[in-house]
Each structure stands twice: as structure tokens, then as C-alpha cells.
Design goal:
two-stranded antiparallel sheet, mainly alpha
Length: 101
């Protein structure tokens, strides 16, 4: 297992876990922070941008996931997913509550 394969696996996990909240908020018609909001990552984006961002994360994570074959790479992918979930939860917890867009 190389450093590159470890980073690729962790990035796959992070992208796949990030696809979930954007997809859920998008398909339920709710606003949610995204890179397309103003300001990025703080303001709220509507459902369509969130569904598109979820799809982009899912596509990127799935593409990176193709190379994850060894048990060590699978562990790196899970750790990447857990780290991303914890980091994003901590980040969004600090944001002020914004009204629906």
C-alpha cells in the first residue's frame, strides 16, 4: 500500500460520506450549506444545487473507490469517511442557525 493509495482511499470515503447530507437535504426539498452558497459553505443553497453537489461527490468518491482493493485501503477509506463526518459535524455545529433560503 502506497501513500497515494492511502490518500485516494481516504478521499473516496470523505467524498462518499459528504454526498449523503447534500443528497438527503436536496431530495427532501430543504436548503443546506454548499460551496455554491453565498458565502460558500456558510450560506444556504437550494435543493437543486445540493442534489448536484451530492451527485458530484458520489461520482468522485465512486471513481476513487475503484482502486480500493486491500484491507488496509478499506480501513483508510473508512477512516477518511469517519474523519470527514466528524470534521463536517464540528464545522456545521459552529455555524449560526440560518433561516431557510
Amino acid at each position: 500500500m502506497t501513500v497515494l493509495s492511502t490518500v485516494r482511499a481516504a478521499a473516496a470515503g470523505a467524498l462518499l460520506v459528504n454526498a449523503v447530507p447534500h443528497g438527503v437535504k436536496g431530495i427532501t426539498g430543504q436548503s443546506f450549506p454548499s460551496p455554491f452558497a453565498t458565502p460558500p459553505g456558510v450560506g444556504l443553497s437550494g435543493p437543486v444545487p445540493n442534489v448536484l453537489w451530492s451527485a458530484a461527490n458520489l461520482a468522485g468518491g465512486s471513481w476513487l473507490r475503484r482502486g480500493v482493493t486491500t484491507p488496509a485501503e478499506r480501513r483508510a477509506m473508512v477512516l477518511g469517511a469517519v474523519a470527514a463526518a466528524a470534521g463536517l459535524a464540528a464545522y456545521f455545529h459552529r455555524l449560526p442557525t440560518l433561516p431557510e433560503a
